[in-house]
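@channel sequence for tomorrow's demo:
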Amino acid sequence: MKQFFAIVFGGLFFIGAGMGVAYVAGWAWRNAGVLADIKAPSIAAVADAIIGQPVDGTSVSGFKRIIRYTADEEEDLISSAPQAMKNSAAGGVTARGYIVKNLTKNSTVISHNAEIVMPIASLTKLVTAAVARKLVKPNSRITVTRDIMTTYGNTAQFRVGEAFLAQDLYYPLLMVSSNDAAEALARDYGRLQFIQAMNDFTQSIGAYRTYFADPSGLSPENVSTANDIAIILDWIRRNDPDLIGITMLKSKTVKGHTWVNPTHFLNWSTYLGGKNGYIPEAGLTSASLFSLGPSKNVYAIVLLDSSSRDGDELRLMEKVK
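structure tokens (generated this afternoon):
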């Protein structure tokens, strides 16, 4: 009897094993083309990944993001990354206008078309935030209306009828570049008066070639120069640093909304904050603060009409010794 059961169950085991091997072999035969296409990444692909993906100095392990670069390794990456990128006519920098300014010493390191007036897109929101902090009470309750929601884009994922404290709207405004948040703050004060206050503010701090037609940056009539944007960024850094602090947050949750900052340099120890923007008429724009060089001076890097924002910033950082 024992021999009988051994033969029966042994036979069933071998039959099952055989079916499993046949299934795997069949799957491999059907997917041979797919398997053949799987290749190890080339050096060029790795370089493209560094430049084209978030250069945030992190890696992923399981479900955790881990900081990967030390400060010294970041400096090495700043020096080596531009060499892996294609050069363009203007020394490898694609931006039509740019400036690198040492804010610690109030000196310009390098610039190109820095006084040419160009559209600035969502760099507008730096001024929107600075002016709103002066004009709108932080505990004012602002309701999201249909008029506000007609603004193009809803990166904050607002819903009509929701109410927020004014102080909470700075997070979606600066972290995810919410056009709705910009309109909400402006309309709470009075939209036309608020825009006039934005223009008055930039004139008062010496950004004389800057003009705004709306509070969000959607209008191509919102214009400035690379040098003016550096002046604005430096004023905010010195006079309202909490706004710069918001641009450094990785995420923020308010009333069930979680806003995640997409800025690529957030995990770099040298990155001190800033703002990006884009509309077709402006190209890619950015205004960033970095602590660079042996003395760790504070630098403003401003790009207008770029086609490779992160790449341009890396190239310009390389010029800071």
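heads up for whoever presents: The chain has a mean pLDDT of 81.
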